[in-house]
Design a protein that fits this description.
The complex is a heterotrimer. Chain B contains 7 helices and 5 strands; from the N terminus they run ααββααβααββα. Chain B has helices at 2-37, 39-42, 96-112, 123-126, 139-153, 157-166, 183-190; strands at 46-48, 54-57, 136-137, 168-169, 180-182. The mean pLDDT of chain B is 92. Chain C has a two-stranded antiparallel sheet with strand order 1-2. Chain C has a two-stranded antiparallel sheet with strand order 3-4. Chain C has a two-stranded antiparallel sheet with strand order 5-6. In chain C, a hairpin with a 2-residue loop joins β5 and β6. In chain C, α2 packs across α7, α3 (64-88) runs antiparallel to α17 (522-552) and α14 (413-430) packs across α15 (446-472). The radius of gyration of chain C is 24 Å and the shape is globular. Residues 477-487 of chain C have low confidence and may be disordered. Classes of the chains: A alpha+beta, B mainly alpha, C mainly alpha. Chains in contact: A-C, B-C. The interface between B and C is large, with 112 and 135 residues.
Chain lengths: 674, 194, 607
Amino acid sequence: MAAKTHSIFDPTIIVPAIGEAFKKLNPLHMVGNPVMFVTEVGAAITTVLMFTGTEGASFGFLLQVTLWLWFTVVFANFAEAMAEGRGKAQADSLRKARTQTFGQRLTSSGGLEQVPADQLRKEDVVIVKAGELIPGDGEIIEGAATVDESAITGESAPVVREAGGDRSAVTGGTRVLSDIIRIRITSNPGETFLDRMIGLVEGAKRQKTPNEIALTILLSALTIIFLIVLISLKAYGIYVGVTFSITVLVALLVCLIPTTIGGLLSAIGIAGIDRLVQKNVLAMSGRAVEAAGDVDVLLLDKTGTITLGNRQAAAFVPIPGVSEQELAEAAQLSSLADETPEGRSIVVLAKQKYGIRGRELHEMLNAKFVPFSAHTRMSGVDYNGESYRKGAAGAIRDWVGGQLPKEIENEVEAISNHGGTPLVVAMKNKALGVIYLKDIVKGGLSERFERFRAIGIRTVMITGDNPLTAAAIAKEAGVDDFLAQATPEDKLALIRKEQEAGHLVAMTGDGTNDAPALAQADVGVAMNTGTQAAKEAGNMIDLDSNPTKLLEVVEIGKQLLITRGALTTFSIANDVAKYFAIIPAMLLGTFPLIAPLNVMRLQSPTSAILSAVIFNALVIIALVPLALRGVKFRPLGAARILRRNLLIYGLGGILIPFIGIKIIDMIITAVQLA
Amino acid sequence: MRNIFIEIKNSVIATIVFAIILCGIYPLIVYGAGQLFFPNKANGSLIEGKDRRLVGSELLGQTFSRDKYFHPRPSAAGAGYDAANSSGTNLGPTSKKLMDSVKAAVEQYRKENNLTADVLVPADAVTSSGSGLDPHISVKNAELQVPRVAKTRGLSEDNVRDLVKQNTDGPQFGILGDPGVNVLKLNLALDGER
Amino acid sequence: MTANGWIQFALYVAALLLVTKPLGLYLLRVLDARGKTFLDPIMRPIERLTYKLLCVDPEEEQDWKRYTAAMLIFSFVTMLFTYAILRLQDVLWLNPQKMAAVSEHLSFNTAASFTTNTNWQSYVGESTMSYLSQMVGLASHNFLSAAVGISIAAALVRGIARHSSKTIGNFWVDLTRVTYYLLLPICSIYAVVLVSQGMIQNFKPYDTVSLTEPFTTQVPKVDDKGNPVLDPAGKPVMEDKKIDTQTIAQGPMASQIAIKMLGTNGGGYANANAAHPYENPTPLSNFLQMLSIFAIPSALTYYLGRMVKNQGHGWAVWSAMFVVFLTGVLVSWHYEAAGNPMMHQLGVDPASGNMEGKEVRFGIFNSALFATITTDASCGAVNSMHDSFTPLGGLVPLLNIELGEVIFGGVGAGLYGMLVFVVLAVFIAGLMVGRTPEFLGKKIEPYDVKMASFVILVLGFSILGFSAWACMNKWGAPDAMGALTDGTNNSGPHGFSEILYAYSSCTGNNGSAFAGIGANTPWYNATLGLATLFGRFAMIVPILALAGSLARKKRVASSAGTFPVSGPLFTTLLVGTVLLVGALTFFPALSLGPIIEHFMMHAGNQF
């Protein structure tokens, strides 16, 4: 799908959204949104009243009010349609990958049949050859292959997928580049991650999150209160001798009920999920996205998340009497046969720092290589009559005959203490020095963790290393805490412990043994490269399999919640100005004395009412971009975020409509609409 | 269901127990202490005249309209200062009835006290108090009445002023409340009843 | 607005601050079933005996449903008890003035009103109620309705403070301990102090004194049967009556007034309430009465802070209350001091302010302050007639009530009402910090929002709904603008204000009135009585449900990302929420009443 951002003003999305906005006027659809439903009913009432001639106002005025009430509903629908449209655009690109796929299904008789991808069922077995698309999500049960997953991740480098272990999962729509694999399909059509995701962004199957439900309750309560206010106002009119026109009462009602947030609520939710998809993360539910905003403890695997996958040689430390050059040379020789990344990094360091040219193995005809093995924990070479070895201190100690020089022992300990891994290099049974292998912490992390600390999120590094090593890396990376020598069970226990203390925990994982922890965590982000079990246990999947993305997921969750809160506050604060526009206008006819209450000095009662209604409708449209983009997230403490947002959306929400209504009043008076 | 019966039973018992303590014992304690420490006050701060008959309460105003007396504020309690029927007028600020009565009262006040039309009348002199039993008038109000009372009684204004001063209450502790002249006590003093 | 007024205000605030902490700490002990107090030697045996009689185990707590059931049943039983006493007062004891039985509708209204801590009085106390009715039928509620209110506030605070707990306390224990350790001891001393200022406390029949200057008045002529004689035009025939005595109402006043103020009941012994010189003899008694209204509500904010282990939160709530209180005082004081321009045109000294309905000994400032305090709290006692306030001076008490009386508020009721606004504020603004809204570690979920919304709904529904009904109804307001109506003493916008005030006051369980309204009619008594019941119980039930829900929740750990519920920012937010959610609802109604009247008064319109 390759994260493709659509401009807010992309006409391919706007044009269909306009049509959708009108289709959504169907009351059956509207009833799910009480605020906008009341608005629609109000618009319907004024439409009828327009023709009864009982409203005592000019037809032009009634028509304009009625039209703007309808616009209010349409604008809200448009916001929702826009969000859905953007989601659909994402979904379509996801879908493209799978439309024309066929799979070679293994029949019960052992033969093969060609079936369309959407007819594959769970437990079907398909065979995929080089150059073919994988027809559905599944697990490799036989063989290994290189797979191009760029359609999903946007990452062009092919990856290896093989049966057994943690790299057996494949995703529908990716292409096999080499070899043949046998895949067991793991989900029915319509149930794949992709399908669920498409449902979410399209809005059709979207379920309201608890926060949305709570907000809808509050908005409904406010709507009912304002209904009571308006109905009682009609009755008071009887007592004080003012006849309030129903159209004006409906106009006031629509202005007062929180149409701004009511109209944008679902758009905000859809847009949040959509933003996540743009980051190549699939969420299983809207609820998971919100939970990401609530998280206050992040469990981060050291390897892959905090450090680059592999250690690298950082320095050669010779014992006295040996030059660095000699040591580097010996280290390089002893590592030539070591194909592990660590081994290669030694060769690279020797070349970069000491100019020791790389040797090709075939040049060294008389060399006898000793490859690295887990058993000996050494690698080396016998070359030109000399034997070179490098390996863990213990292994070399045995090789040299039980004793290492004191300087070596000290250096080994010092490097361990600093979180590094020491490798001892020896020649002719004599230790020459130590190679300092270092975990390389990814760039920019500690600033990032600093941001999280500011917003109250604690980061915990999980590692299999010993506590000393772990502490050193933790310090360098700037995490708040670490769990050393962690087993998957420890991880699960830690999550439970944190949750018990009232924290919400997010983590990433990819292995099958991560599954219980992923399920236990409030937000579990499974790596797309991970096992099926891990993916099913988590509630999000990162298509890029980049564990660092957890941080972005949290920010998106927060941004979603902030946007919703900000627009709610703005919407409620707006009422002040609308009251000051409409109430004096309603009473001015009977009580000219009330003129001073018309603080905005609006031209006439009709222009005042019209201006308020127009402002109320236009503000929805004006806020659509904000709803879709989300309020910018800032890494500040809650108090500072609150102060800032209260000023912008609370105080701003009170002041802006005063200005807006006044301007609209001036315009419609100038063009003589009222 | 059983729980509901328990709560009903509890409610009835509690009502009785609390009634005995709160409505029986408690008022009696206050009664006892009041009668013991402040008997005059607990019984209404009543004033006896020279002939030992009760002539009023220090705290409650009475109607006076003769020139030789200081006049209290208008009263809405019963027929005027009815101490079994305390009440204000409860007329709102835009009430015609209120304005009419204030207008009449202003005119009468100016006439009684021989004031010119440019003398501003203190508000308390022409408005009713909340209780209809307000024992006080403002110091300014009393001051405007001094010449009339002095003239009627043939006393010097300074003499009358002294009595006014003696019967002026508060502000309590020099801070709390507004100063007020106790009309009943002042008039009784003028009559030599006290 | 005089310097002396400012000094008195400063003194009042200082005194209030001074009692807040010690009383709050004392509340902490009272509201803990195992709390120890210095009164244990005296009260403990009585407390134990009470539990024994009730068969209540003080160690056993109740879940919110049981707590609610106990509270509702108890309230209902006491209401019935009072209804019975009022209906039967003519045949019961302690009736030296031979008062007749109280009518059905007035008995219902009065029983409902006192049970709900409203103390709305459609009757004239000194000419309607026997000593027994005053002392037992009414005064018992002064204690019990106050104790119920404090109990519920304590239950809600426990719900907030606890976590993963099913129970929120034991209603019977709360009720008993609040009554025995808090209300009764303070009142016993307070009442005697009031006597020292001149408040009466006796059981003698009404006194009769001879007037120094007897006078003649006109009264309607009555025939032998006591019916008024009418002239051919249907108007009552008047006759002269010489009045040479003053009948002075007496009775056990101080004991009732002490709890009337401390328990924010407000139901006067005399019709004129705290304006009556016996009921409020001196500026000091006035000061103490004002202080005693706010004492417990203010201390409860300290209790809140202690219980949730966040004193900053307690003070933030206190500050929010104080800000709105201060604003109210200043507005009311300003407009009362400015007076009525129509009177000024008649020659009344503008410097003396609006003295109609006010007592000289209190003056403008103490009247405006008292009016603000009594309506910030759900007290409803008055030392001046709110009906005769200037339009905007009178708007303050009206709006205070309509805000839900959360500005310190009724004992208990103020805090639990304010906490509902806190929940709403936290919910609305809490999202803005990027987390699911949480209040002191409790996530605010749909159920909680539902309960909080319900409370706000009840307020608007009862006040606006009932007054709308009254306005459309010939019992409520038979005449349109321009002529005096049966229901109200005043016409024009002020008549509307009277109706609005009546339903606001009853729904808010305040009890003060724009007293010109002639509410002692079957229709008003019934609807106002219903409004008091709505305003009390339809709010308490969802609030206890909220308490139960909060108590059950797990607590979320706090961090830098946690929504701050203390400090000036939160105070501002809370004030904003109270004003936006509370005040806006009533803006249209208020503009038809006091606001229009204000402009009309300045234009010289009379009705």
